[in-house]
Specification:
Blueprint (H helix, E strand, L loop, with lengths): L1 E5 L6 E5 L8 E8 L12 H5 L4 E6 L3 E6 L2 E5 L9 H18 L3 E10 L1 H10 L8 E5 L20 E7 L7 H14 L2 E7 L7 H17 L1
Parallel strand pairs: 3-4, 3-7, 7-8, 8-9, 9-10
Antiparallel strand pairs: 1-2, 2-4, 5-6
Helix pairs in contact: 2-3
Length: 222
């Protein structure tokens, strides 16, 4: 895939596109948000693993810089234990996506937003609340923020599908967090596909295979 880094008006991001672009073809867009302490490079390897021909990928970098030790820098979407900055972060994420869509010369059919860990929290609270229409949300090893409800605009339970996974051995975000979030989203009326795996806080090949199948099914049924 062709990969380029962008440092422009809002948040930095990596853009991954198929090697051979067909200007007459409709592509789906997948936006992925990394976890706490990582960066936009963290999930970049998922693009060719999911599908290198039919999707465009946007990997956005979180705004808060962190010293993660050994001279390394990581990033966070909001401070740990403080969801008060979600609205501010939401504006930056949405502005970054909108800027890309405004200048994109390719034909975009469906849009998906997703994330791992804290990126999954942003997917739930920012993606589902966005005024940008998403066909689906991908929530990997994550949960909702306690006492922070989703404010729906255009992405409602009847038009937005959710793919959600969690590891039963997750010591960072216990599987109970995932189950509680799943149950809450189902109660809200979302068409949600949920999987549990014998894994820790990670993304395995089995997760990717199930995600690929969900994307194919989601495209056919919407």
């Amino acid at each position: 895939m062709q990969t380029t880094e962008h440092f422009e008006n809002h948040l930095p991001y990596i853009l991954s596109t198929p090697d051979h672009i067909d200007p007459k073809k409709n592509y789906d867009l997948i936006i992925l948000l990394h976890g706490y302490g990582a960066s936009m490079h963290d999930l970049e390897g998922l693009a060719p693993a999911i599908n290198s021909e039919d999707y465009i990928y946007l990997f956005i970098n979180a705004p808060i810089e962190l010293n993660i030790g050994y001279g390394q820098t990581g990033y966070a979407w909001v401070p740990v234990g403080d969801s008060s900055e979600i609205e501010k972060t939401s504006e930056m994420i949405n502005s970054t996506i909108k800027d890309y869509l405004d200048k994109c010369e390719l034909q975009i059919s469906k849009r998906y937003i997703g994330g791992f860990s804290q990126g999954g929290m942003m997917t739930i609270h920012v993606g589902l609340s966005s005024k940008i229409n998403f066909s689906g949300a991908i929530v990997l090893s994550s949960r909702m923020y306690p006492k922070h409800e989703i404010k729906f605009t255009v992405n409602h339970p009847d038009n937005t599908k959710i793919f959600m996974v969690h590891g039963t051995q997750d010591s960072v975000l216990p599987v109970e967090d995932g189950r509680n979030t799943k149950n809450h989203l189902i109660q809200l009326g979302f068409d949600l596909e949920y999987h549990e795996y014998n894994m820790a806080h990670e993304i395995t090949l089995e997760v990717i295979e199930d995600l690929k199948n969900w994307l194919i099914h989601s495209c056919k049924s919407s």
